[in-house]
């Protein structure tokens, strides 16, 4: 039976998937720009592994699947602050701090999954994503968290931009850098928990990194970078979700592959076309 | 009676675990153009960073505009231009205008939103520093001199009363350096901006600054260039030839 492109909107699960995917993709893109430029790209991976541990705990205690995401939030928030403090206070490199917290999450996850009776189907749905099975309750959670994260980014936008450009300059302007850093990693934690259902724990960092890196190839300004990253992310999520439906492919993996394709196309276009505005300007002091 | 903008009493500060300043006393008054000179590792930059709260103070007290530094919150009164950005990224996707606007954040209360006056202030500084034609260029596409000019605009956009410059001419060629010094001197003389400038360029700065602070862990000399060049103690400290090298172009 042939299914037209508009017919997919007759399926409630596709509408929910596209709506949730668009919101989550946009959030990941916005935060990804800050994280990539601050060389914190891998914090997404680290927090995703903690999320894996939290999900295993929730499933071990037989928490209702609709609330697994919500149950993971406190642990992931605390872990994000742990990564930050390890880096600041324990004189540890940021990537090492991410590695330690990440290992802890994975270790707890594997151990609990094993104690619970080997591989668990629910756990795999979190590992590899299952956006098509997103429930109305999960969509509501995604919408609420999207609103919260977007509001906080809007309120702290200038401070986030300032610390992303240079922490010392930001501090000399009276910005409380430690506080804004905490805001950034907490937002990243919330976003990672949200993105878990979309592409799965294994691929979350790609949603944070790829749209941002793609936008950085062509953007000519900080705001433009964020806007382009959101556009690339949403286009990839929508295209990937629809393509996976028609081609009967896993949705998370397809979304990430589309993201990579967009990056490759952008790199090719950039090589072929000179950057607009990069013309030489008389070198005055 | 001159207005005291900066007061430092018996300051001891460490940088990366090493004690680099000990027993520093200093007062900077409105209208001063203070050149801070000294050898590598003498603590010049640490002095500036301690002043701005960027490194912890071990002992001593710092006041800014009469308020203890710990409770000072009028950062719009101070403009800061660092030697180089700590994590400079040549591919950072910010335009000249976006970088200059960062300076307007100082002194703003949460939630920080753009005010109508901001656009006028931005326009004025872009025109004054002759960077309006490159306002949409990315910062990484500019020459070293242009980048310094943009960061100076960021530091100046709030019309600060005190401008702190930490080795701002290190990456500049001699001609651009002279131009930069002239610009800062105009800010001091014509606009009444108090300047603290850290430099290695002790031979040139005498033509611009009104006061010299020679630092080597502690204060070696604090006074005018004329006094420095006539001082037998400084001749003894540097040797007559060393003193002559510093004073020859003044």
Describe the structure.
- The complex is a heterodimer of chains A (285) and B (250).
- With 285 residues, chain A is mainly α.
- Chain A has a single domain (7-270), classed as ABC transporter involved in vitamin B12 uptake, BtuC (Orthogonal Bundle).
- In chain A, 76% of the residues lie in helices and 0% in strands.
- Chain A contains 11 helices and no strands.
- The N and C termini of chain A lie far apart (68 Å).
- In chain A, 46% of the residues are buried.
- By secondary structure, chain B is of the alpha/beta class.
- Chain B has helices at 44-51, 96-102, 116-128, 144-156, 174-191, 202-205, 225-230, 232-238, 240-247, and strands at 4-15, 18-29, 33-37, 57-64, 67-68, 78-81, 162-166, 194-198, 211-216, 218-223.
- A 6-stranded mixed sheet of chain B has the order 6-7-8-3-9-10, sandwiched between helices. In chain B, strands 2-1-4-5 form a 4-stranded antiparallel sheet, with helices on one face.
- In chain B, helix 2 runs parallel beside helix 4 and helix 8 (232-238) packs across helix 9.
- Chain B is globular and about 55 Å long.
- Chain B starts with a strand and ends with a helix.
- The model of chain B has no long low-confidence stretch (mean pLDDT 89).
- Chains A and B meet through helix 6, helix 7 and helix 10 of A and helix 2, helix 4 and helix 5 of B.
């Amino acid at each position: 039976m042939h299914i037209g492109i508009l017919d997919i909107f007759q399926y409630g699960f596709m509408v929910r998937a596209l709506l949730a995917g668009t919101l989550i993709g946009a959030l990941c893109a916005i935060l990804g720009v800050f994280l990539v430029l601050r060389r914190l790209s891998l914090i997404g991976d680290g927090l995703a592994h903690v999320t894996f541990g939290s999900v295993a705990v929730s499933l071990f205690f037989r928490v209702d699947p609709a609330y697994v995401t919500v149950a993971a939030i406190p642990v992931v928030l605390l872990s994000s602050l742990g990564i930050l403090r390890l880096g600041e206070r324990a004189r540890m490199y940021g990537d090492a701090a991410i590695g330690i917290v990440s290992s802890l999450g994975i270790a707890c996850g594997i151990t609990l999954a094993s104690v619970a009776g080997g591989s668990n189907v629910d756990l795999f749905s979190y590992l590899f994503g299952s956006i098509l099975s997103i429930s109305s309750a999960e969509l509501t959670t995604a919408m609420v968290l999207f609103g919260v994260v977007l509001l906080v980014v809007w309120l702290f936008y200038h401070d986030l931009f300032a610390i992303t450009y240079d922490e010392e300059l930001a501090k000399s302007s009276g910005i409380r850098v430690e506080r804004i850093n905490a805001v950034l990693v907490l937002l990243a934690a919330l976003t990672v928990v949200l993105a878990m259902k979309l592409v799965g724990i294994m691929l979350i960092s790609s949603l944070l990194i790829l749209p941002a890196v793609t936008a950085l190839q062509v953007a000519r300004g900080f705001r433009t970078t964020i806007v382009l990253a959101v556009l690339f992310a949403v286009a990839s999520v929508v295209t990937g979700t629809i393509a996976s439906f028609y081609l009967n492919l896993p949705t998370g993996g397809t979304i990430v592959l589309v993201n990579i394709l967009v990056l490759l196309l952008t790199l090719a276009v950039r090589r072929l076309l000179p950057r607009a505005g990069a013309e030489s300007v008389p070198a005055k002091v | 009676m001159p207005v005291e903008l900066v007061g430092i009493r018996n300051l001891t500060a460490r940088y990366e675990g090493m004690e680099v300043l000990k027993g520093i006393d200093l007062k900077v008054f409105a209208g001063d153009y203070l050149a801070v000179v000294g050898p590598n590792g003498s603590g010049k930059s640490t002095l500036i960073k301690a002043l701005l709260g960027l490194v912890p103070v071990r002992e001593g007290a710092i006041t800014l505009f009469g308020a203890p530094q710990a409770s000072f919150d009028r950062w719009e009164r101070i403009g800061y231009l660092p030697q180089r950005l700590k994590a400079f990224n040549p591919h950072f996707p910010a335009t000249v205008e976006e970088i200059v606007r960062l300076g307007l954040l100082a002194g703003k209360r949460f939630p920080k939103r753009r005010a109508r006056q901001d656009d006028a202030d931005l326009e004025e500084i872009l025109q004054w520093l002759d960077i309006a034609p490159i306002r949409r260029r990315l910062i990484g596409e500019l020459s070293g001199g242009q980048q310094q000019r943009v960061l100076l605009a960021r530091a100046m956009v709030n019309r600060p009363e005190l401008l702190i410059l930490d080795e701002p001419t290190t990456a500049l060629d001699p001609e651009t350096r002279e131009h930069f010094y002239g610009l800062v001197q105009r800010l001091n003389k014509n606009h009444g901006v108090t300047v603290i400038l850290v430099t290695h360029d002790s031979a040139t700065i005498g033509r611009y600054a009104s006061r010299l602070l020679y630092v080597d862990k502690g204060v070696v000399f604090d006074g005018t260039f004329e006094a420095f060049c006539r001082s037998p103690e400084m001749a003894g400290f540097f040797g007559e030839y060393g003193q002559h090298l510093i004073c020859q172009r003044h």
